[in-house]
Design brief:
This is Response regulator FixJ. By secondary structure, the chain is of the alpha/beta class. The protein folds into 2 domains: about 5-120, Response regulator (Rossmann fold); about 125-200, Arc Repressor Mutant, subunit A (Orthogonal Bundle). The protein has helices at about 15-25, 35-40, 60-70, 85-95, 110-120, 130-140, 145-155, 160-165, 170-185, 190-200; strands at about 5-10, 30-35, 50-55, 80, 100-105. The chain has a 5-stranded parallel beta sheet, with helices on both faces. α4 runs parallel beside α10 (about 190-200), α7 (about 145-155) packs across α9 and α8 crosses α9.
Length: about 200
């Protein structure tokens, strides 16, 4: 069986080399691109696989790259890599069609899991995905304050910013955050944001 193909777009040569080694070792076929323009110029019309792109790059950034791919008819699933704290960018990327995001520095297994999920045949339509429906049911169990914290977390606000907005201490925000994470079964903020976007809450 042919190896699944990952198109890696990152302007950092060291990161490209590192990703190429990781993905090759994990059994993927890899093509490397320095810029979004490189990918757009070299990607065949009937391209296979998925795109793994950094979100912050000179010229065409990851968000613009996803938009342009969709405009020219490419429907390859895309996973974006974001810097720490770039939750609003990750949310925007998913709204534009990315199927997942990973925060740098990331655990190798987290990235590989995201890519395998993106490449899985027959990924369920978001609205019909039982996992999305389950998440929405769990969100309905949140208290009003927990929902306020959820909305601001997904918007990219820090605990301090949420505390100021809701007139509570950052420590209290952390308590609400822990409660809502437990109720929604989110494993981390990245998982929470992903679920919220897929459920149409972000």
């Amino acid at each position: 069986m042919a190896a699944e193909l990952v198109h890696v777009v990152d302007d950092d040569p060291a990161m490209r080399d590192s990703l190429a080694f990781l993905l090759d070792t994990a059994g993927f076929a890899v093509r490397l691109y320095e810029t979004g323009t490189d990918l757009l110029d070299r990607l065949p019309r009937a391209a296979a696989g998925c795109v793994l792109t950094d979100i912050c790059m000179p010229g065409i950034d990851g968000l613009d790259l996803i938009r342009r791919l969709r405009e020219v008819g490419h429907r390859l699933p895309a996973v974006v890599m974001t810097g720490h704290g770039d939750v609003p960018l990750a949310v925007e990327a998913m709204k534009r069609g990315a199927c997942d995001f990973v925060e740098k520095p990331f655990d190798d297994e987290v990235l590989l899991r995201a890519l395998r999920s993106a490449l899985a045949p027959g990924r369920p339509a978001e609205a019909a995905d039982p996992a999305v429906q389950d998440f929405l049911r769990r969100v309905e169990t949140l208290s009003e304050r927990e929902r306020q914290v959820l909305d601001r977390l997904v918007g990219g606000a820090t605990s301090k910013e949420i505390g100021r907005a809701l007139d509570i201490s950052p420590r209290t925000v952390e308590i609400y955050r822990a409660k809502l994470m437990a109720k929604t079964h989110a494993t981390n903020i990245q998982d929470l944001v992903r679920r919220a976007v897929l459920a149409g809450l972000a």
